[in-house]
Amino acid sequence: QVQLVESGGGVVKAGTSLRLSCEAAGAMSIVDQWGWFRQVPGNQERELVADMDAHTTRDLLYGDSVKGRATISRDASKNKLYLQIEDVSIEDAGVYYCRSRWLALGQDYWGQGTQVTVAS
Predict the structure, then answer these.
(1) What is the pLDDT of residue 27?
(2) Rounded distance, CA 100 to CA 119, Å?
(3) If we measure between CA atoms, which residue out of 96, 107, 106, 104 comes closest to residue 48?
(4) What is the 3-state secondary structure (H, E, C) of the chain?
(5) Burial of residue 76, with CB atoms counted within 10 A of its CB: 0-12 exposed, 13-18 middle, 19 or more buried
(6) With the CA atoms of 33, 28, 45 and 18 taken in that order, what torsion angle do they form, in degrees rounded to the nearest 10?
(7) Distance of CA 60 to CAs 52, 71, 116, Å?
(8) pLDDT at position 41, please?
(9) What burial class does residue 71 get, using C-beta atoms within 10 Å of its C-beta: 0-12 exposed, 13-18 middle, 19+ buried?
(10) How far is CA 101 from the centre of its chain?
(11) Region at 42 (left for phi over 0; alpha for psi -120 to 50; beta for the rest)
(12) Mind listing the pLDDT tens digit for each residue in 41-99?
């Protein structure tokens, strides 16, 4: 299993940058993909924000809403995953979740989420 804990949420002023962290623990050798997802009120689905191949740390994928403004990165020495979004807007608000995926079993592990509120 993989345990994930997000941090860095809170109130962010529109036009500034946002940086989220996700601390991972457990059997990280099984992880094939690391990702960030966002869920907004009234929507049961979690929207992809960013995703990366855990083995190469390349093959980066970004959601259309953040393309060109977001960067996903990982510091393996600290067991941390990061998400940075520049020029934040109201549309970036929501609960951000960190996810790790084990492809062989189709198993996803999620953190508890961190709330981001954007102030105009």
Answers:
(1) 85
(2) 30
(3) 96
(4) CEEEEEECCEEEECCCCEEEEEEEEECHHHCCEEEEEEECCCCCCCEEEEEEECCCCCCCEECCCCCCCEEEEEEHHHCEEEEEECCCCHHHCEEEEEEEEEHHHCEEEECCCEEEEEEC
(5) exposed
(6) -80
(7) 5, 9, 23
(8) 87
(9) middle
(10) 13
(11) left
(12) 888 999 999 999 998 877 899 999 999 999 999 999 999 999 999 999 999 999 999 99
N-terminal to C-terminal alpha carbon distance within the chain: 40
How far is 45 from 51, CA to CA, in rounded Å?
A: 16
Within 13 Å and on the Cβ side, how many CA atoms surround 20?
Answer: 35
Dump pLDDT digits (tens) for 15-30.
999 999 999 999 888 8
Pair of tokens at residue 106: 């189709």
User: Is residue 90 classed as helix, strand or coil in its secondary structure?
Assistant: helix
Q: Give the span between the Cα atoms of 38 and 5, in whole angstroms.
A: 15
